[in-house]
Automatic annotation (TrEMBL), chains A, B:
Alphabetized NCBIfam families for the sequence: NAPRTase_put, PRK09243.1-5, PRK12484.1
Biological process terms in GO annotation: NAD+ biosynthetic process via the salvage pathway
Function description: Catalyzes the first step in the biosynthesis of NAD from nicotinic acid, the ATP-dependent synthesis of beta-nicotinate D-ribonucleotide from nicotinate and 5-phospho-D-ribose 1-phosphate.
Post-translational modification, as annotated: Transiently phosphorylated on a His residue during the reaction cycle. Phosphorylation strongly increases the affinity for substrates and increases the rate of nicotinate D-ribonucleotide production. Dephosphorylation regenerates the low-affinity form of the enzyme, leading to product release.
Species the sequence originates in: Bombiscardovia coagulans
MF annotations from Gene Ontology: glycosyltransferase activity; nicotinate phosphoribosyltransferase activity
Residue span(s) of domain Nicotinate phosphoribosyltransferase N-terminal: 13-137
Name the UniProt record assigns to this protein: Nicotinate phosphoribosyltransferase
Enzyme class: ligase
GO cellular component labels: cytosol
InterPro entries assigned to the protein according to its UniProt record, in alphabetical order: Aldolase_TIM (IPR013785), N/Namide_PRibTrfase (IPR041525), NAPRTase_N (IPR040727), Nic_PRibTrfase-Fam (IPR007229), Nic_PRibTrfase_pncB (IPR006405), Nicotinate_pribotase-like_C (IPR036068)
UniProt keyword list: Glycosyltransferase, Ligase, Phosphoprotein, Pyridine nucleotide biosynthesis, Transferase
Cross-referenced Pfam families: NAPRTase (PF04095), NAPRTase_N (PF17767)
Keyword check for NAD: no
Amino acid sequence: MSTNPTNSMSTALLTDMYEYTMLDAALQDGTANRRCVFEVYTRRLPQGRRYGVVAGTGRLIEAIQNFQPSQDDIAFLADRNIVSTASIAWLENYHFSGTIRGYREGEIFFPNSPVLQVEGTFAECTLLETLILSILNYDSAVASAASRMVSAANGRPCMDMGARRTNEWAAVSAARSAIIGGFSGTSNLQAAKMYGIPAIGTAAHCFTLLHDSERDAFVSQIQALGSNTTLLTDTYSIEEAVATAVEVAGPHLGGVRIDSGDLAALAQQVRNQLDALGASEAKITVTNDLDEFAIAALQNAPVDSYGVGTQLVTGSGAPTCSMVYKLVEREGSDGNMIPVAKRSQNKATVPGRKIAFRSYEYKLATAEHVLSGSPGALASFQVPDNWRDLLVTYMLNGEATNAWTGKEAMLAAREHRAQSLSELPLSAMSLMNGDPTIPTLEHIL
Amino acid sequence: MSTNPTNSMSTALLTDMYEYTMLDAALQDGTANRRCVFEVYTRRLPQGRRYGVVAGTGRLIEAIQNFQPSQDDIAFLADRNIVSTASIAWLENYHFSGTIRGYREGEIFFPNSPVLQVEGTFAECTLLETLILSILNYDSAVASAASRMVSAANGRPCMDMGARRTNEWAAVSAARSAIIGGFSGTSNLQAAKMYGIPAIGTAAHCFTLLHDSERDAFVSQIQALGSNTTLLTDTYSIEEAVATAVEVAGPHLGGVRIDSGDLAALAQQVRNQLDALGASEAKITVTNDLDEFAIAALQNAPVDSYGVGTQLVTGSGAPTCSMVYKLVEREGSDGNMIPVAKRSQNKATVPGRKIAFRSYEYKLATAEHVLSGSPGALASFQVPDNWRDLLVTYMLNGEATNAWTGKEAMLAAREHRAQSLSELPLSAMSLMNGDPTIPTLEHIL
């Protein structure tokens, strides 16, 4: 698979400095080896959203396996006096040996859903905070936006064309997250290569402008790619372009793309023109700053697929999920685990490790249940009928329990999102601002 | 310098597929070697913004130098039949040999400012579209947001703490862009290492929770980092934490951080308490979803520095600059250069290569001037007094004209932004929604 930087390079400095200085202080004061449980969750969904989609966990597991400071990283930490020499020795042998559980990739989440649970020593867990949050916050933001777009598209395929509107490597992750959210392909070649995603594309206006005529450009594209290709029709007059396209490609023209103007009206005109010219199989792809609302508004227009850019890769108004990574339980000086919580205003946390379930009635989800309590109480909890356990084990004592990062895992996540969403009340699919589709109920056992 | 993936790995697949299929068709029809000029600009600033800040160009020049498909990339392009075997041979020898001019990093830009101009054959220029836009769109979005925050902070330092709220590699670029926008440091260690940015940090709530008491945590942090460190005070009661902090660190406590609640009121209480306890030198850092408006609202509060996260790395509501890459001029079949433009509805382009200047009166900018015309007219244009030429040469015939990527270039860009902003009317600093501070005037010579 190779070239994902996060998955082939050391990820050990994709952190905030305080993670290393806390490690250093804890190693000196003897608390570094206290066992800890950290949890990742979001306090709220973005404004008006009904649900979120977990994505990034597979990438994250690989990134954690590559979290080993290189000699270069170590030299930097030493030269800048970020940690003491004692810590350097510890870091040279660092390898995450803890256990990670969490929601499946593609799982629906709600406020306070414990989407990830990281258990290990304080030292090994605290170093991962930023890496975990970077990956889950961005990937889940994109998957959550993608999922709304896919629902709005109501069966028509959505294609990721957003690379140009976000950081060059964020784009690669975004393509993967879009697939998990239900998209069907990506224009981004690095993502196509790394994750085995279908690569898609048409042509740019510059290709038409490069040629002495639009006809020359169409002829060239068809000679190179076959008549099944998609021609871009809005460089000059759309009507003339469509006529030329069918003349050049014949009735088996693959499709046309419209990238400007009133897309619904234009799609209708172009459909009628294509049909009149005998190209009734030619598909119409529309692009141009689409989001879930624009896609929904095109529901009655004869559009065959949507190319989505900016709004996909920027989370359609919510470019982060605002997930946090909080210590909920740690070993005390007597060796027993103690639930802990901060009491910061408006940001207080719920102490103790959680277990999480979704309850169903007549096959539809009714609530998210997040339970905390003593280890004994959690272990002996009798799971009611029609409650689904939401936590799976990603890593056990430092070893990944499965291949979480490849194409199969990505496609499994895509399926899981579709299944999980189909089990929510229909209000989940509403684009109107509203509350989470089901409530999150916190239980203390 | 090393480990920036974009700058040490092949960047050749950080593209959209159509760039390779257009290349393929153009190589087959003989237009691939036509000389072209592409320009990067944005049609409008984000809603209400007065100006933008160019960032990313230095990173981009390095990324273009690394744009050479690896054997692995070539195999992918062949296996997926994205290009023909003739194109594969061409790609194996690809090296950008063109010329790139553009606005300096740190330069202020407005709608239609030609922030980058790429000149070369169609083949070599078209491949770069997505990479150029990804880097400039994201980096400039962050620098533009940073610049507004720095103005609002009015001399108090702003620190990047945003890594956890964006893609893990986007975060590294964001830290660099924040510095160009006027920020003073970053919590992100990878960015600190790659770009020589001052690394900053305090401690997380988990560090306090890990210990048997808040006092234990403070003692540990001070023993590891010295009394000049910054202690986090809002895990439990802020008042008690501040008292403990001064007891433990003594009057030379470095500072405290407040991360929740009403930051203005709390800063005032904490300042008074610190002063009463004799710790009048201790600094107050505030964090918690700050943006330029929150920073401006804290102007009268006794705050010493701002830690900014989400809103910095997501461009404070504008996560992309919506820059586009458009063909404006190309060689005709007779060998002469021809201005070209698309006529798409609402997205028409202005034909021809541009030159760009900013005019001044009494040392204040009055307008952005974007001029097009025949090569002769442009060459003989008499630049009026008090017009500043905005274009510099980054690459000449495939060679970088300077070291555009290192720490010095980043700091020069930071200075340039400050200088360039100081030459704008004061309305540029307004956070109220409004038009661009100066108009962009398009001239045809």
